[in-house]
Write a structure and sequence with these properties.
The chain is an alpha+beta fold and 592 residues long. Among the domains are: 91 residues, Phosphorylase Kinase, domain 1; 157 residues, Transferase(Phosphotransferase) domain 1 (Transferase(Phosphotransferase), domain 1, Orthogonal Bundle); 75 residues, no CATH class; 88 residues. Helix content is 35%, strand content 19%. It has 13 helices and 19 strands. The strands form 5 sheets. Strands 1-2-3-4-6-5 form a 6-stranded antiparallel sheet, covered by helices on one side. Strand 15 and strand 16 form a beta hairpin. Its EC number is 2.7.11.1. It catalyses: L-threonyl-[protein] + ATP = O-phospho-L-threonyl-[protein] + ADP + H(+); L-seryl-[protein] + ATP = O-phospho-L-seryl-[protein] + ADP + H(+). InterPro entries: Kinase-like_dom_sf, Prot_kinase_dom, Protein_kinase_ATP_BS. GO terms for molecular function: ATP binding; protein serine kinase activity; protein serine/threonine kinase activity.
Length: 592
């Protein structure tokens, strides 16, 4: 394709990278003065099926619109155009002159430099997550050190990856979610196809550890619980070590849940008296002083108004968040600081009042409930009722919108529970080969942006299987009756290997049977009330010395089994709730 002119404008100059679903090129924009270079990303759908292309196009356009909003940030490449050409999809973005962060790693960084990296990257992620976007491939190659100002730029966003995931789903009609990411930087929930904002924080934490130790993530060991063993490989203060350890916790509920939360903790760490290496704080200018623009690129530059790195201030500056943010933590932080500002203003006003007679009227605090309710209603319209409920429950009881929110929450929660039950029934029926039940349950779900990508593969799979059943079978040609052969002597069922661990856990609802044999673990689980099978798909395995730890996710519940193949006395089942509480810790088998 080199030399080809796309959309009558973008001339491809050279390839920049390639993947299984497309390629990236450096191109010239022939309709801008000087023909500046840009980046063109090509996405090749795996099939030409018209119904598939229709859905892929809708998803692509939606994600491109998201990228357009992200490009408003100074440290994210701006989206210049997106278009379809010959049943292929193309994105055009600004070309960032610089080098990837991977070129700077491989040796141990000083602690203050690592903190600076984390602060700058978390600031970008705080903005990204506020746009309801999960990057899903945070790694050194996707962080560029921009040449003109030495700032970090985050590239390779999820528009192509989101569509790739849906492409794979719709083409294979098997899996709902596809793991997108890079081994070593990708946490277990992302491997199983359930990425969260904290998945990006896990990856960034791995980069921070890589900078401190000089080691690749794949060179670090994990303990029996899947936690990264790294502290002995670096000289690091207790504060930063604890911060990074929390970022890379194996179970996502144990990590920082938002970039804003992590950023606040990091900035408190920067001014803590116990840190090993602390940067020298610059003198604080008078409040009416004009900012001085440095002649050389500085780590803390005033290039971008929404990014500041306080070095000596005891209270970190808030990061502004758009109203559409899924995370309300930054909103509450900002509200708290605003309240502090109002208190300070009230003190100043009181002092002024003691010396002068004019009366000062203080504007009453605005009611944020109405905005939150509108945001929740927007989520409900997309079909994500769970998120709508989560937002609406943040409305305070003294808000004028509280009564309306309470009524909406009740209805949304009821609908959400019913819809999730329908979807679980559809998945269970599909796994069990009950095609009609699977199809009908999937069809009963709403046809909206949230449920349509989930139900389309189920309906298509059920239709194919039903069509195959209905297809006429060819009449077999009669053949001569073969001479009967002697009935073989039945072989006795082999006796399980002595010491092979096995056991059954059972409560009022679930029965789980596990067996370990030939260094492999198998399981069977069913709901005693409904007869449904327990879906523990996408197991990850962590190996440390002679112990294996198998981890599954069933919804937001984590199932963890610890097993030593060399010692059959250890086979333990743990079930951890979404809030991190250990629901079950049961020894299923013990050698007598």
């Amino acid at each position: 394709m080199i030399g080809q002119l796309l959309s009558g404008r973008y001339k491809l100059i050279r390839p920049l990278g390639a993947g299984g679903m497309g390629q990236t090129y450096v191109a010239e924009d022939t309709q801008r003065p000087g023909n500046p270079v840009c980046v063109v990303k090509q996405l090749k759908p795996p099939t030409n099926d018209p119904s598939f292309l229709t859905i892929a196009k809708r998803l692509f356009n939606k994600e491109a619109e998201t990228l357009e909003h992200l490009g408003h940030h100074n440290q994210i490449p701006q989206l210049l155009a997106y278009f379809e050409h010959g049943q292929e999809f193309f994105l055009v973005q600004d070309f960032v002159e610089g080098h990837p962060l991977s070129q700077e790693l491989g040796q141990r960084w000083p602690e203050d430099q690592v903190i600076q990296l984390l602060d700058e990257a978390l600031t970008i992620l705080d903005f990204v997550h506020s746009q309801n976007v999960i990057h899903r491939d945070i790694k050194p190659d996707n962080i560029i050190r921009r040449q003109k100002d030495d700032r970090l730029v985050l590239i390779d966003f999820g528009a192509v990856k989101q569509v790739r995931s849906q492409n794979t789903v719709l083409a294979s009609q098997v899996s709902q979610s596809v793991a997108v990411g890079t081994p070593g930087y990708m946490p277990s929930e992302q491997v199983s196809g359930h990425p969260r904002p904290s998945s990006d924080l896990y990856a960034l934490g791995k980069i921070g550890i890589q900078a401190l130790t000089g080691l690749l993530p794949t060179q670090l060991l994990e303990d029996a619980d899947g936690e990264v063993i790294w502290r002995e490989q670096a000289q690091v203060s207790e504060g930063l070590a604890a911060f990074l350890t929390k970022m890379v916790r194996h179970y996502f509920k144990m990590r920082y849940q938002t970039a804003g939360e992590a950023l606040e903790a990091l900035r408190q760490l920067r001014v803590a008296p116990t840190e090993v290496v602390a940067p020298v704080p610059p003198p604080i200018p008078p409040i009416n002083a004009q900012p001085v623009v440095p002649t050389q690129p500085q780590p803390v530059a005033t290039v971008q108004p929404d990014y500041t790195v306080p070095v000596a201030a005891p209270t970190p500056a808030p990061i502004s968040q758009p109203e559409s943010s899924r995370s309300l933590v930054p909103l509450f932080i900002g509200a708290g600081l605003l309240a502090a500002g109002l208190v300070g203003g009230a003190v100043a006003l009181q002092s002024s009042f003691n010396n002068s007679s004019p009366t000062v009227e203080v504007t009453p605090k605005a009611d944020a409930g109405a905005a939150l309710l509108v945001q929740a209603q927007d989520e409900a319209e997309t079909g994500d009722l769970g998120e709508a409920v989560a937002i609406a429950t943040q409305i305070s009881t003294d808000s004028d919108s509280y009564a309306g929110a309470t009524e909406s929450i009740e209805q949304w929660q009821t609908d959400w529970d019913e819809q999730n039950d329908l979807f679980e029934r559809a998945e269970t029926a599909l796994s069990a080969g009950r095609w009609i039940e699977a199809r009908n349950a999937a069809r009963a779900l709403p046809n909206n942006d949230y449920w349509e990508p989930k139900t389309t593969p189920i309906i298509a799979k059920a239709k194919r299987e039903l069509d195959a059943i209905k297809a006429p079978k060819p009449t077999p040609t009669p053949t001569a009756t073969p001479t009967p052969t002697p009935t073989p002597t039945p072989t006795a069922t082999p006796t399980p290997t002595p010491g092979s661990p096995s056991g059954t856990f059972q409560d009022d609802t679930w029965q789980v049977t596990l067996r370990g044999e030939n260094s492999n673990l198998t399981y069977e689980g069913r709901n005693l009330k409904t007869g449904d099978s327990l879906n523990l798909s996408g197991a990850t395995v962590a190996t440390s010395q002679d112990r294996k730890v198998y981890t599954w996710y069933n919804g937001d519940y984590q199932y963890r089994v610890s097993w030593r193949p060399s010692d059959a006395s250890v086979l333990r089942l743990q079930v951890i709730t979404p809030k991190g509480r250990e629901l079950i810790n049961s020894l299923l088998y013990e050698r007598t």
